[in-house]
């Protein structure tokens, strides 16, 4: 009897196993992926690891990366590419700019043997801004200036909703680079120079994009990039090498990725262009396997950056040829190749020759398939085309609120807010252009964008407003136009000079900033400094609006203009937010997420430097920063009590409380910051490090108590033994509203 029962049980088990089918939507995504893998040929599996740029992305005649394709709309039917998709040799595309294209490509994928849908990705870095008609939020450096992580979660969720409506399911963001060199053009797409700030902002953005529990069926896949340490390249040049101690790697560069993985469950990671300590990131097994997967517990897949695997050979001179580069990248842990020919063939051949074990391919393709299942792509592969993107109206309100919170008032001699000026002169190449949108944005329809000049016209309806905007081009500022500006300035009551940089990758206006736009100088580019000086020479009060994607050196301006509002690149509603601040309808509350240097020669200029940094001084100039990290003025005065450390009941380190009062005369936002410094340890420590922050809003005359619990994480350091620990000794807890010593009050904590 027992034997019969056992046999029956076994048969039932076999039947139920045999019945398991990857098409069964009740199975978990990971299981469906394993089942599907079993039905795939080696070629189909390697195909999942291949990503190509969408044909329409490359304008006709501009060197299409495809053989035989001059990328125009009609070429969607190109035979080479179409056949690859039909054979199941393409897993993913990036930058499909229209739903028509996404639909056409997905329809081709449905002609393949197993009908595996394509995963279509895009750089939705601050909103889905590479697509016309989508919301363009302020750039990330501006969002970081809000010190308001919750806002990032909202923006992430709104971005995800807009992406899905365009057939896009994967964004190559957030950028978690810790930007510690303003010569590097990508500072604007980062959350700044501090590990904690980048971690908090990045984590919340991922929560917004993917959902709190990685609920991809209604969200999109995020990508933490770039692993690792590209934010401080030699000479400030993008992709240049980086040498970094393990302590610095672990204390500065890795924390945002750890938060992204452990707390937010990010689904993908992108490797960095650069080498670290002699090994390029795209071939670095220690980085991609030992650290990322084994130690940090990453459970998604790793995508290469654009053609960076080829560059293991051509740029780094590390792999002797590109075939070897492809193979080494797979061995090291890269799961998907972004753009380019010959990868597919090289990887298939390496498996057939026994160099790459097929189980490594199963691991890579399996994870990619798992994400596709989780995103619901198999059930709904072909996007529904909607002409108008739903939600953009409401999302525009978020973009405006973000811009309002991210503007940083650096100087105000009392001129702001402007009280009913009669004659305003608005001048500068960034005063009336889409520079306001920043990098990673296509030009949007004029009606969707409020420029500074437009915002000012709305906010000051009874003033007479003269403008000189140089057609939006920095290069149009020359001796002749400067003379015109000088003349017009004399006729105004107040001059508003909108100068800075231009990060716009798709305009012919002359970029000075953004990806691959690095500089060996941080001054205002072109003749903008001369323009500023000429307007100041009119003797009229000058308000400088600094619109930029990097920390510029503006020492002359600090000494000579009446007010400076650093607006970064505040997005589609930026002009309205700026004008509201000028008019006093909004009280500025943004804080610098990076240190602003006096000059390029003072780089590296960060707030968390080591004690010995300024033991010697520069011979012919003042040493130290121009404006400190965490700094930003308000129209109100906020007063801070001394911090009080209340002992914890159990084993903890206690809680610091600070009373903050808005002494008026306006309602306003403030950012309460907690820094910790440890004077002596087994390794030298930074003079201070940001350990917690909280954005608050207080009405005129109101006060509140802000409390921060002191945790082990805040006190631990990566010590001389190569281990994290809280070392005994004295710690100073500093609280206030910037990282400058004069803005901080302190108390001490002794750890036995
Ligand atoms: C950038 C990445 C980006 C990729 C795709 C690269 O040049 O470094 O950050 O995601 O292009 O656009």
Report on the structure:
This protein has 752 residues and is α/β, with parallel strands linked by helices. Strand 15, helix 20 (555-560) and strand 16 (563-566) form a beta-alpha-beta unit. Helix 17 crosses helix 21. Beta-D-glucopyranose binds next to loops. Beta-D-glucopyranose is lined by residues 94, 123, 172, 225, 305-306, 515.
Keyword list:
binds beta-D-glucopyranose, 6-stranded mixed sheet, 26 strands, 17% strand, 5-stranded parallel sheet, alpha/beta, 752 residues
Q: Report the uncertain regions.
A: 64-77
Mean pLDDT: 94
What radius of gyration results from the CA coordinates? 27 Å
Count of beta strands: 26
Sheet with most strands: strand arrangement: 11-16-15-14-12-13
Q: Sheet with the most strands?
A: 6 strands, mixed
- Which cofactor or ligand species appear? beta-D-glucopyranose
Roughly how much helix do the residues carry, as a percent range? 25-40%
The fraction of residues assigned to DSSP E strands is 15-25%
Shape: globular
Q: Supply the helix-strand structural class.
A: alpha/beta
The total of helices stands at 22
Q: Distance between the terminal alpha carbons, to the nearest Å?
A: 69 Å
Secondary structure blueprint with pairings:
Blueprint: H1 2-19, H2 29-38, H3 42-48, E1 50-53, H4 79-86, E2 92-94, H5 99-109, E3 119-122, H6 140-145, H7 149-164, E4 170-171, H8 195-210, E5 223-227, H9 246-253, H10 255-263, E6 268-271, E7 275-276, E8 279-280, H11 285-295, E9 301-303, H12 311-314, H13 322-332, E10 337-338, H14 343-352, H15 358-374, H16 392-406, E11 408-412, E12 423-427, H17 452-459, E13 464-468, H18 479-490, E14 494-500, H19 528-537, E15 542-547, H20 555-560, E16 563-566, H21 574-583, E17 638-640, E18 644-646, E19 655-662, E20 668-678, E21 689-698, E22 703-709, H22 712-715, E23 717-718, E24 724-725, E25 729-736, E26 744-751
Parallel strand pairs: 1-2, 1-10, 2-3, 3-4, 5-6, 6-9, 12-13, 12-14, 14-15, 15-16
Antiparallel strand pairs: 7-8, 11-16, 17-19, 18-19, 19-22, 20-21, 20-25, 23-24, 25-26
